[in-house]
Amino acid sequence: MKDACQVFDKMSQRDVVSWNAMIAGFVQNGLWKEALKHFKQMGEDGMKPNKFTYVSVLRACANLEEIEHGKQVQTLILKTGFMLDMSVRNALVTMYAKCGSTNDANIVFARSKRNVVSWNAMIAGYMQNGQAEEALKLFCEMLLVGIEPDLYTYVSTLSSCAGLETLDHGEQVHAQIIKTGFGENLAMGNVLITLHAKHQNVVNARKIFDRMPTRDMVSWNAMIAGYTQNGHGDEVLQLIRQMQSAGMKLDFMFNQFTFASILRVCASLIIVKCGKEVHARIIKTGFEKDVFVGSALVDMYSKCGNIEDACRIFNEMPTQNLISWNAMIAGYAQNGYVEEALKSFIHMELQGMKPNQFTFTSVLKACATLTAMEHGRGIHAYIIKNGVQCDVFVGSALIDMYAKCENIEAAARIFESMPERNLVSWNAMIAGYVQNWHDEGALKIFCQMRQACVMADNFNLASILGACAGLAALGHGQQVHALIIKTGFDSDDWVGSALVDMYGKCGDMGSAREVFDETVQRDVVWWTVMIAAYAQHGHGMEALRLFEEMQSTGMKPDHITFVGVLSACSQEGLVNKGREYFHCMSQDYGIIPRVEHYACIVDLLGRAGCLDEAEKFIKEMPLECGSMVWQTLLVACRVHGNMELGKRVAENILEMEPEDPTTYGILSTIYTAAGRWEDVAKLQELMKSRGVEMEPGQSWIEVKSKVHKFVARDRSHPQTEEIYLKLEELTRQMKEAGYVPNTYFLMHEGEEKKNEWHF
Fold first, then answer.
1. Which candidate, 571, 490, 470, 564, places its Cα nearest to that of 524?
2. What is the secondary structure of 111-159 as a DSSP string?
3. Contact, 139 vs 153, CB < 8 A?
4. Which residues pair with 707 in a beta bridge?
């Protein structure tokens, strides 16, 4: 264009042809602003444009999406009488459609004579703006008025069918294409690949691809994109190897969209080596400055856990758009750099970039990870201000954030106010209730979900099994198990291990073992859950036998497995065996003991009465133990009546957690057992001064698939009178059978008779 400009500038006289040649040249070379600049200059020089001028200028407006400029050109067209020219009208239709105004395009289209190009322009306009049904309707109307479609008509119509819910219309159009003889056309084959891939039928897409007599870059890219969209990452890599083995020069075959597709595959499969190879090709072909490719690189490195490279690429991008900002913020959030995610969000706003629903979901995830509810509330207010609170994914992210920040009431309010819910929303609410120990709420929401005819997935089923386990609601758990079998999720590892956990926590060890034994391929989670179930219900030797069996299969235990193993040793009083397992964690498996493992050893020593050794063990711990380990020793002091050590341990705990009611309660029972009533009274005064209140313990029982909760001296149940009459009858029968209640820990002086009935 540089030479053309020099020749044009040196011309002493210019006519409309020379101006048209110059403007058309700019348009063809993508220099659309220059085209508009020369059009303006042409008018200033007193040269009148013709239809060819207007067609080129409208193309420039379309590519720049300058609708206001396009409307000004239309005004000139009306004044100069060129509105009657069909090529000008078709260019106007295309301009309005590309600027996103199909209404204006349709007005021009409807008020004039039309040829096949006119119909193609309008159908393509609907297709480009995602109005698939309108495009298909117009195609049918075109056939009815007797206009013969050409190749471009069919390409646009088939492309529109890709945006419809079903493949039926696309197959009908395809059948008509075969009759017209366009079926073997290269462009048609490429569109058919895309059509079938977008409707998740990659098998048919591949058949079309394989049957094509010739393929171009678009064909290969369409097949790669189809596999990528449907999660067939391995097939993408296989296709690339096929291209290489065929001697194709990939650097010339791939464009920015291909590179982005392959990078998405590397990200989904977490293959950073492959991603780096693609990155090298991108640099070689000069696409590293492309914002679309740059965003895909940021996403790939982030998902592969290489946040430093992701950050470097992001900072080196010449321009950053919303997609690249979203990729960077999501990368920080996914890799645990939550504060950086929030800082990037603020920086993005300062750059004048308006966030969308994907930005908000990533930022809310960061707030949830930090349990930073105040930040989350600020983001929530901003979401309302931007009017995206009704977006189903944003709503789900808000539910998750509030639930993880332990504000389940706010999460529930958002859930109830959502105008539309998808499976993600239901899952977020159910998981939120389970995480906050509101298991009854989780069951209630699950029932509502079933009534709304929403199909459960493996995450949903695993969560609700957790609720059943938390309530020990065996009946509900069995119903969920039946649903799992019906929906085919019984082969899912996540669901299966949750089933074992549910049966184990409900005390149905037979069913737990049955589910475990029916599974041929078990990962470490399966073994761990079964071992923990045995340990929890006093079957310590069974737990240890299962652990030995696990080792014999070559399965390596993890840190959670050893919690169950050490608990089993504690249950059985196997002190030496417990020590042996504790040491083999690091020596044989390279697992560094955590606080929970130290707590298990303290429990093991405490149950065996080795209290001084347990205290020494805690003091020699290489990490900060926290209150959990000391509380384990405190319970052992209560059991063995060691008041002096118990007092010392309790003081350590209260220094760390002065408002923890459990410690006061255990220390009070130690004083009571020793008859230290003055110390009990002082402890109660201390609790009162610190505002510490003992929450009553809850128990529950499941009767006919309904869970009934109760506390000591509870009279809230509608059948209270009948319940207490039955309790009195059972108490009398127990005494007659020789039962003597143990009021050792909770009996206050002179209150034995008063407390006896409660035991």
1. 564
2. TS---HHHHHHHHHHHHHTT-HHHHHHHHHHHHHTTPPP-HHHHHHHHH
3. yes
4. 702
Distance between CA 574 and CA 566 in Å, rounded?
A: 9
Longest dimension (CA), the chain: 125
pLDDT, tens only, 315-367: 999 989 999 999 999 999 999 898 999 999 999 989 888 899 999 999 999 89
DSSP string covering 454-484: PPP-HHHHHHHHHHHHHHT-HHHHHHHHHHH
How far, CA to CA in Å, does 281 sit from each of 236, 247, 248, 295, 714?
16, 16, 14, 16, 72
CA dist 615 and 404 (Å) reads 35
> What is the C-alpha to C-alpha distance for residues 218 and 176, in angstroms, rounded to an integer?
23
Terminal-to-terminal C-alpha distance of the chain: 97
User: Do 215 and 209 form a contact (C-beta atoms < 8 A)?
Assistant: yes
Helices in 181-271 by DSSP H: which ranges? Answer: 186-198, 202-211, 217-229, 233-245, 250-253, 256-269
Question: Pairing relation of β-strands 706-710 and 699-703?
Answer: antiparallel
- Assigned token pair, 255: 């464009």
- The angle subtended at Cα 236 by Cα 232 and Cα 240, nearest 5°, is 170
CB 230 within 8 A of CB 200: yes
How far is it, in rounded angstroms, from Cα 299 to Cα 278?
14
Cross-strand pairs, 710:
699
Q: How far apart are CA 326 and CA 364, in angstroms?
A: 12
User: Is 68 exposed, middle or buried, given 0-12, 13-18 or 19+ CB atoms closer than 10 A?
Assistant: exposed
CB of 443 closer than 8 Å to CB of 451: no
Residue type, 34: E
Residue 60: Cβ-neighbour burial (10 angstroms; 0-12, 13-18, 19+)? buried
pLDDT digit string, tens, across residues 183-218: 678 888 888 998 998 888 899 999 999 988 888 888
